[in-house]
Amino acid sequence: MNWDVIVQYLPRLLDGAVLTLQLVAISVLLGLILALPMGIARASQNLYLRALPYAYIFFFRGTPLLVQLFLVYYGMAQFDVVRQSALWPYLRDPYWCAIITMTLHTAAYIAEIIRGAIQAVPPGEVEAARALGMSRTQTLLHVTLPRAIRIGLPAYSNEVILMLKASALASTITLVELTGAARTIIARTYLPVEFFFAAGVIYLIIAFVLVQGFKLLERWLRVDACQGR
Amino acid sequence: MQTYKKFLLAAAATLAIGSQAVAAEKLKLGTEGAYPPFNLIDASGQVVGFDIEIGQALCAKMKVECEVVTSDWDGIIPALNARKFDFLIASMSITEERKRAVDFTEPYYTNKLQFVAPKSVDFKTDQNSLKGKVIGAQRATIAGTWLEDNLAKVVDVKLYDTQENAYLDLASGRLDGILADTFVQWEWLKSDAGKDFEFKGDPVFDNDKIGIAVRKGDPLRERLNTALKEIVADGTYEKINAKYFPFSIY
Amino acid sequence: MIFDLHGFGPALLAGTLMTIQLALASLALGLVLGLLGALAKTSPLKPLQWLGGTYSTLVRGVPELLWVLLIYFGTVGLMRSLADLLGMESLELSAFAAGTIALGLCFGAYATEVFRGAILAIPKGHREAGLALGLSAPRIFWRLILPQMWRIALPGLGNLFMILMKDTALVSVIGLEELMRRSQIAVTASKEPFTFYMVAALIYLGLTVVAMIGLHFLERRASRGFVRSAA
């Protein structure tokens, strides 16, 4: 192990790690916002409402993220219409392509987490709220969702870790995030073991910190107390 | 129980690792396969191009049978050292950094680095005019290294896994220009996809010696050098050259 | 035909077959690793518990792509010393072998947790009954625990397999000519990225559907004689 070289290039790896964190943070937040209506629709009793987001979720969960990334980054540019549209300034930037793709991808998974969480809310509680005269919307906002958030939080934290790992794919569309930084450094130094190892350790540290953060959040939201039936 | 046995067998088969002796009569020729016209993979899956023809001509002179193996560019030197192939003929520039990892033969052609940009754009290659431009190059190439060493503070450098992906982004307008080997770009410029683009300015670097790489200390290097001299002397090289370029690249 | 494949149809088909082979080989390796990991984690021996736990935590915390790259490019020195040790001329990890090991490693780390849950879900009484009958520990595991674990673990493993199948696309980065790499080659020639990546996406979707159907039948077979309890 050539530690001196690792230390020498550490700032570049850390720059990459910052970009990794940005990509993950933005996409899991936007993904959550996008997933909320889809998850609620998926848990609905109305068949049509339930079927509507299905195709979207099916596509994004059934195909590799790498293919989705290449479809958005290289695929969209095949069409002149896209290149002349108002969206092009964003779509031409690999940063936004990565964020768009990762958001669309994670939203499909989060929507299913939300569906599962809503369906796990004890029916008695929903019935009780309705019996107290709450409207459907009130029940959703004050009873079902707060309860579902706590039920779904552990699964959401898992999804965030999965997206942290998935963000490594952004290196294939020229972004110099953590994996991209390691690959660029290796192209110069020919030290694959050293730099993939160093990048791996940084991923582990980020994952560890995120998991601890979610544990704190779970404690703050008193998730434990809400899990009992 | 049958199922478990099958799983175990399959797992064992997976772990079995291919190994082969470097026999005198058979060699593996390594290349990338994404660098037209020097090396590329056609629709039938065949690896073709200038590098491969030169490589096969050398094999014929050395009286050995060569099998073509491809590897992605990023890991092509580690792959050579891992004996995934015996010599590497992939339009690789001879650089000091690479010489620490592998040995090179005498150059089999000399390349230049030159910018390419849209015909419709006024594109000057001095530092001031380049300021703020987005320039693409292939990761782990001499063009990529040159950009990072000379223009990293001036332009936004984007590095691609393959040269083809850089062309796709130049055509889509994501890149203002590309820096790459002159001959490779010459081929692309005369293709349909490259018809709206042209060379800009003089070559920024014109002594890019391209060599065949072998593992450090491998005596194969001398045999390749001898064979190279022979194909240049007997006109084989010239014939292959003429198939690809109307000018000599040696 | 909606998509003009420019003669790359057979190449894509060959890539699809390679993808399936890679997924199945990784599955086989991953199941073995997962089983070993779960046995280690549930064993009464502290060092084994630690080993199983470290394996599943470390592997799950690092991107799959990084494992693929690390195992392909990082094992060169290791393989060379191994070859010297065995007195062989050379040893190499092909892209297929490296991909299988990397994906199997990742699958195994998640499968460790699935199998562990399944082991813990089997009533203690079954093991005790085996002991009372005088069966040896391996026999108890092989004849009593494993057949029951299978049923409990199947849905979890099925999910992992779907993830694995999509992760095979990552091996394109080290040049294995599976579906994704074949599509990239086709894009290079045709300059039609959308067409070919869309076709690749649809093929992956098709594979997912086939896997889902297969899993459904396996689950039905595995839970013969069991009444599904209401959630």
TrEMBL record, chain A:
It is found in: Cell inner membrane; Cell membrane. The keyword Cell membrane applies. SUPFAM superfamilies: MetI-like. The keyword Protein biosynthesis does not apply. It comes from the Bacteria. One of its GO terms (cellular component) is ATP-binding cassette (ABC) transporter complex. Keywords: Amino-acid transport, Cell inner membrane, Cell membrane, Membrane, Transmembrane, Transmembrane helix, Transport. Its main location: membrane. It is a multi-pass membrane protein. One of its GO terms (biological process) is amino acid transport. One of its GO terms (molecular function) is transmembrane transporter activity. Residues 17-214 form the ABC transmembrane type-1 domain. The chain crosses the membrane at residues 20-41, 53-75, 95-114, 193-214. Belongs to the binding-protein-dependent transport system permease family. HisMQ subfamily. This is Arginine ABC transporter permease protein ArtM. It comes from Pseudomonas flexibilis. The lineage of its organism: Bacteria, Pseudomonadati, Pseudomonadota, Gammaproteobacteria, Pseudomonadales.
Automatic annotation (TrEMBL), chain B:
Residues 1-23 form the signal peptide. It comes from the Bacteria. PROSITE patterns: SBP_BACTERIAL_3 (PS01039). It is found in: Cell envelope. One of its GO terms (cellular component) is cell envelope. Keywords: Signal. InterPro entries: SBP_3_CS, Solute-binding_3/MltF_N. Pfam families: SBP_bac_3. SUPFAM superfamilies: Periplasmic binding protein-like II. Residues 26-248 form the Solute-binding protein family 3/N-terminal domain. Belongs to the bacterial solute-binding protein 3 family. This is Amino acid ABC transporter. It comes from Pseudomonas flexibilis.
UniProtKB/TrEMBL annotation, chain C:
PANTHER family: ARGININE ABC TRANSPORTER PERMEASE PROTEIN ARTQ, CATIONIC AMINO ACID TRANSPORTER, MEMBRANE COMPONENT. The chain crosses the membrane at residues 20-40, 65-83, 95-115, 152-174, 194-218. Keywords: Amino-acid transport, Cell inner membrane, Cell membrane, Membrane, Transmembrane, Transmembrane helix, Transport. This is ABC transporter permease. It is a multi-pass membrane protein. InterPro entries: AA_ABC_transptr_permease_3TM, ABC_transp_permease_HisMQ, MetI-like, MetI-like_sf. It is found in: Cell inner membrane; Cell membrane. One of its GO terms (cellular component) is ATP-binding cassette (ABC) transporter complex. It comes from Pseudomonas flexibilis. Belongs to the binding-protein-dependent transport system permease family. HisMQ subfamily. GO terms for molecular function: transmembrane transporter activity. Its main location: membrane. Residues 16-215 form the ABC transmembrane type-1 domain. One of its GO terms (biological process) is amino acid transport. NCBIfam families: HEQRo_perm_3TM. It comes from the Bacteria. Pfam families: BPD_transp_1.
